[in-house]
Amino acid sequence: MTKVHNYSAGPCILPQEVFEEASKAVLNFNxxxxxxxxxxxxxxxxxxxxxxxxxxxxEVLNVPEGYTVxxxxxxxxxxxxxxxxxxMGKNKKGGYLNTGTWAKNAIKEANFMGEGVVVxxxxxxxxxxxxxxxxxxxxxxxxxxxxxxxxFGTQFKAIPETDLPLVCDMSSDIFSKxxxxxxxxxxxAGAQKNLGPAGATLYIVKDEILGKSSVKIPxxxxxxxxxxxxxxxxxxxxxxxxxxxxxLRWLKKNGGIEWIEKRNxxxxxxxxxxxxxxxNFEGTTAVEDRSNMNVTFVLKDEANTEKFNNxxxxxxxxxxxxxxxxxxxxxxMYNALPLESVQALVDVMKKL
Amino acid sequence: MTKVHNYSAGPCILPQEVFEEASKAVLNFNxxxxxxxxxxxxxxxxxxxxxxxxxxxxEVLNVPEGYTVxxxxxxxxxxxxxxxxxxMGKNKKGGYLNTGTWAKNAIKEANFMGEGVVVxxxxxxxxxxxxxxxxxxxxxxxxxxxxxxxxFGTQFKAIPETDLPLVCDMSSDIFSKxxxxxxxxxxxAGAQKNLGPAGATLYIVKDEILGKSSVKIPxxxxxxxxxxxxxxxxxxxxxxxxxxxxxLRWLKKNGGIEWIEKRNxxxxxxxxxxxxxxxNFEGTTAVEDRSNMNVTFVLKDEANTEKFNNxxxxxxxxxxxxxxxxxxxxxxMYNALPLESVQALVDVMKKL
Lengths: 352, 352
What we know:
Chain A contains 9 helices and 14 strands. Chain A is of the alpha/beta class. The longest helix of chain A has 22 residues, at 256-277.
């Protein structure tokens, strides 16, 4: 069977060797005679998995002392709420950059127990750029942004400058490039892009923030609950955490963040060069804010749609349909997507 | 390799054929050339999985019209909070039966946005019985109980009588026996006992309750959010939902709830008979409240501990250690545990 070129926006492609090892673990984990799925999460076998996963996150991202790594449930959508609960201070106001759908959802949850203040927005141009040159009010408790915007294809090329505690939803570009973790007080990310399958959510928490919120927090939404219990307050998402650990092993073994950053840059360069050179296509975002993870583009002549779609199908390229709020095409090129898949897409674009 | 007799309290044993099919899906799902883990949750393949899982829950449990089935994240621990948020009415008071650790945790979350009123408790005897003959105050918005108490080995043999909206945490005995779903307004259950692996949480919601809470609810904790989006408001726990669907198929194919209820009764009868007949052992709970899922017992003479533990090990029986709050032994006999495993345990008990 010809392997599909999988451009799915998430859940998305993971390394083939990860699938192979995960498949075996479902039948017989660590030669225990038991499936990973039927083992107690308190067993030594699984506690080792959780600890290796947490430790690999620290190693691969070069997380400094004073931070705790958690694998929880709920997705970034629950993260929006948890971030606001845990970061609210005496002003009960968080500052947000509104860069699209996910940022908006994060702001909405801050308004539940405090106020989500929109510091700057790119909604005026359907989020096709990253806001710059804004002033940050001084009466905020924290500053929140979404590092990569999957739907609109924009990405922050630098960490915003602020003296406020910094919070970031890194769901769709964490582990894709080097990041100075010491700049952040809280990072959260749904696993289902560069880290693993759906069902796990990563938190990287600066220990200093714990227990300092000005609002009362329900047990499960309080990061301190989970930090105090080494990410095992309740039954964790066992399988998703395990597959995330396998993916982190793959990343480390191949050269870590430096290796993947170069590979991602090569993939992005290849595709954006074609978009810019090919008269049939046009990128949808400001050039300086283009995402290396999600490349959004349109056909200049919509009459070519059927022909292009057929060519994609013939080449076994899947998952390229753009999100309904932008239209056109979106090539999601997460860590595990090989350069060959991007070449296959570029070849099809040249054929049109 | 000799198969282990897996008495794990959860995550726990699931049918072998489920592991085999799940293992294949991790490599190549539905002959798509893609792993289930790398497919979009919006793909037809996965939407079909979610719909079949939801529909099988209705079929197997004979869920009447007017209820919606959801597969969400967070475990029953988040369910404690969601139940209280969604059920609070004009009194802002929920009534609870305190039958152990999980019931206590549920009460704590109700106190976050209202009041969790303890209607009756068995804490006076370390939760070794189910409270009976209590009066339910009339100024409550709902009545909550935990149908089976994994740690203490007690189980409700009948649904409590009340005119209040009825809420139940059925994490550890759902799908083990016939239940009249029409008596309930809300049922929730962590998947990792009779339904599937860790990472999914089942909700069965009476549609009538939606949108009627007297308190403001954060987006992700509002059941209406998920009902309105057919359990796909955000990325669902894809793999755990799929494995749950496979387990439900297995249950249906073998004869459904009537079949499993008889099998579970036979397993419980075999083990409790041995506990009562064997002078070396003693059950820890009130006889009339004994759980068919978690059988708790102790050695009458602690000097036999090492000998008994060695016999268990020789027979490849794992997961029998009691919870620290009760001590002794706990045999968790969820749906997929075969009668042969119980016979193996009884054989060891006779040998002592």
